[in-house]
Records
---
Amino acid sequence: MDSHLIKNNTKSKIFSTLILFTKDKTIYTVTVAELTRKIGINRSTFYLYFTDISDAISQMEKLLIENIINVLKRTRTLHSDDAIELDMYKAITYSIDNNSDAFIALLGTNGDQQFANRLKQSIAPFIGPNGITKTTKNSDIPEDFAEDFIINSIFSIVLFWINHNAEMPYEKVAKIIYKTRRLSPLEIAGVN
């Protein structure tokens, strides 16, 4: 977990250890006893910060989502409409890259399967009607369909990146996302 994101050392250790456990088991099957034993803290110390494992997971996810949203808000206010889209993709991939262990753990097979949905819902306002999705007179695709397609395709690229090619620089992933927004699926596949 990015040290800039978590200032409290004990909370950081708890989050980092939860992430480590996802290599061997699903995140919600981790117990407070095994977590505190692995860290070397008392259970009472854990309960100073969290009510249970679900609360710890929820707080970690909330921090990750808030970080992306804050970066997106700053990006949105710094640029005009013409420059904003690529910068938004860079902001998303930058935030994920800086906390890659947490995102890999939470979005992986042993993570929280609902986290991706909460993350998608959180960034939708930046991509939807008030964000970068623009409907045109040439399209008869309803805006909500287009928004859902764009958000899901972004996440497909991000998931592939963190699960199969995590060493790729976040800027390159952002450019891939940006380019896929300008090509049809057939063009991406190389079919004319």
---
Amino acid sequence: MLLFIGVYRILRYCPKASMLRLKGENGVFAEYVLVDKDWTVRIPDGLSYEQASPLTCAGVTIYSAIQKLELSPGNVLLICGLGGLGSLGVQIAKAQGLRVIGADVNQSAHDFLLTLPERLRPDLLLNPKYDKAQDLSLEIGALRDAGYDSFDGVDAAIICTDSPSAISYAISLLRPHSKLLLTAGPMDPNFSLLDFLFKDMTVLGALNGTRNQLKETMELCAEEGIKSNIFIERWDEGRRVERIMSGHARGKGVVKM
């Protein structure tokens, strides 16, 4: 098992890797696919096929990102971008005892999170258009445990959007000695190096996750009732896939064969 996990970790980062996906190898829309059992995860009871589907990419990516930050219950985590990755990240982080701030300019993203059970909702929702970093010190401080006497700001931030302003917004809310993790972002980010130097920040990246982490992700989501905002499309000779790829619909598109 240790050998297998080690090999898997190497293969994940192979620059020549080819994946079975929408824009990868043929076969992704077959009704049945033959795969090695060592590369699969059983869907736990209580988790539908439709809800399990986004976990194989968005779910395990944000789960592994949160793990990589090595936060403790009560720490404050900022998630910028509340789409497929970010909305799952809010719920997973809350289920693990973190205090969570969600930031997104789209009201529909806020609306979905507010439909969730209170225990899975973010502790604070921000719209960067209106909620300026310099005005949020007291609100962030109110999320801290009694007796907290360290720096103002959040302990870590995860970027889940390609918005050019997301990184700078997150940096403005991070405290000194914090962590910034990128699961997405603009290809040519624009920020000041001085922010990283004078705040002594650690910058990390995350690429999906391991088979073990996918298993843990699915089990956690089944146990805690964590859900994606999904819409289901029929195959319809591929025409519905084009609608999903167009980006006009909100939420995660699931194709049902």
---
Amino acid sequence: MSFYFHLRAVAVNQVKEDAGWLTRLFDFAWDGLVDEADTHAMVSLERDFLDVHHFYTGARHYPDTGEPKTLPVLGGRVVRGAEPDVPPFVILDPPLVVQASAFLDDVRFDDLWSAAAEQLVPPHGAGFTSVLRKTFDRHHDALRGFYAKAADEGDSVVKWLLL
């Protein structure tokens, strides 16, 4: 089974804390994802989003402590729908989007990789170190571009795990 953690930039005056509206926000044609990603209107992390969170936070546990390092992936305000089996939505308001963007802009990829590689590589095997490093570098670049644009435009960020 594939699952994707999607992050979408949304004008703050359009965001509704309603599970039905948020679900419709993520009802999109897969064909349009490339265009949205190219314009930094959305970013998608396949399967390894918890590892990407760990990459930024340096921790295997996933609490949102409100620190900037917790914001890019899992941080934000949780909005739950009526169905308990459906993952909740997470919303970052513009001030937190700015904080996440500043964190991603200030932090050096090499520093993050040095701190996290020891825990991230072993489950995959040392032979995959180069591939993993490139994957995390690609995620980092995508998140930096996405959050920079969202911060510049004063947008909120809405996140959801699609199974």
